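ugh ok so i messed up the first submission bc i forgot one of the chains. this is the corrected input, ALL of the components this time, i swear. 412 residues overall. if the numbers dont match what u have on ur side tell me asap before i send this to the collaborators (the ones from the other lab, u know who)
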Amino acid sequence: MTETLTSPTALAIDETAADLLFRNARTAMQWTPDQVTDDEIEAAWSLAKFGPTAMNSLPLRFAIVRSPEAKARLLELMPDGNKAKVEAAPATLVLAYDPNFHEHMDTLFPHAPGVREQFAPAVEMRDTMARTNALLQTGYLIVGLRAAGLAAGPMHAADYDAVDAELFAGSGFKSFLVVNVGHAEGAGTEYPRLPRFDLDEVTKTL
Amino acid sequence: MTETLTSPTALAIDETAADLLFRNARTAMQWTPDQVTDDEIEAAWSLAKFGPTAMNSLPLRFAIVRSPEAKARLLELMPDGNKAKVEAAPATLVLAYDPNFHEHMDTLFPHAPGVREQFAPAVEMRDTMARTNALLQTGYLIVGLRAAGLAAGPMHAADYDAVDAELFAGSGFKSFLVVNVGHAEGAGTEYPRLPRFDLDEVTKTL
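and heres the new structure output, hopefully the right one now
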């Protein structure tokens, strides 16, 4: 296990982007007073939306929580250890997946008509597929937020059923992660970087 | 729904990186004859390993399948529609999660001793947590592969239990996705880009 912050071969992106998106990016704990603008979220989504999902199913949905009133509603549903983090963040995204994503498949996957009807009775499969692909999209979104100059702080809520009832009532969306977003206060305010596995610790070559 | 390939505000990365990682990146179907080198996989991992996971749990594991013999073993376990894709790709990554990730927590999360022991009996929780966080890491890995100049083609195997028995026997790892990797043959060989949701179609602001 090492803390290598350089890459072993020429990357196809410049060092600034590699540092910003991955090597120097950290889970932010302290924020500047700057607000998160609609344009910044839009910029992050303008990239993250292109990340691949199974059958272009795109099941990720999210609430952008910024108003004091909505923040207060969300705070009630966070574990004690995460309440202050949500309170401090300029914006908090509550991520959910849509188990009824199949209703959009005629638009999203137009060359294969009938997917919507075929998936309709497969309730359990749809739930798994939606959660799986929304998690992939969460990876793209976290990178996309950083590409838009924002920092992300992912964390868990205490009770996602309660979050669904409070923020996504009537939609059928199922929340699974909370991500604080803002402009990170300079280096040194985060926890020390934790170790990462080297490639040979997590792979085998066949 | 639109096909906007520009971003509404200044990004913190240059346009070349935004195009390479997201806007012009496509699920590759055709490959140049160039091999995928160890250094290229290492370069992708040198970035992707830094993406955040819950409690730094880093549960993603993968097999790098390149030899004709290993390719043949994997081919047997792919659905008919995906066999030719695996056969054509210079390398194929078989992604899995490690439900026993807790055994590494003393190293990965050293400031909170006891996590390993606390998680040991929570078999079901560990399985869910490992799969969830390995999927986040898959998002980072797909972006990391692109940053290393590679293209990725994610797809499903036919029977992941069979894949586990064939490629991950004795490890306890559970496979969940197969990703072809290589150097994409020039533009125009992919399927047409499918539509994406606009931000306001997948979010609400509170």
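quick check: Chain B touches chain A through 81 residues (CB under 8 Å). that seems consistent at least. The mean pLDDT of chain B is 93.
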